[in-house]
Amino acid sequence: MLAKHKLARINELAKKAKTACLSAEEALEQAKLRREYIQAFRKAMTDMLHTVTVIDPNGNDVTPKKLKESQRRRFH
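== UPF0291 protein B4109_1134 ==
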C-alpha cells in the first residue's frame, strides 16, 4: 500500500481544501498523491482477487472463468 507519510499528506491536503483554497502546487500534489493511492489500491485488490476461489453451497468450484484465466496467467 501507500506509505504512511503519503496518506497523512493526502489527509492534510483534504482538510486544507475544506477550509481554504489549495495553491496550484498543492492541488497538483494532491492529484498526484490521489492517483498513486488509487493505483496502489487497485493493485492490492487485484492481488487479493487472484487468491480467491468461489465455492457454492454444494462444494463445487464456481469461480468465474475470467478470474480463473487471470489466475493461471499470473501464477504460471
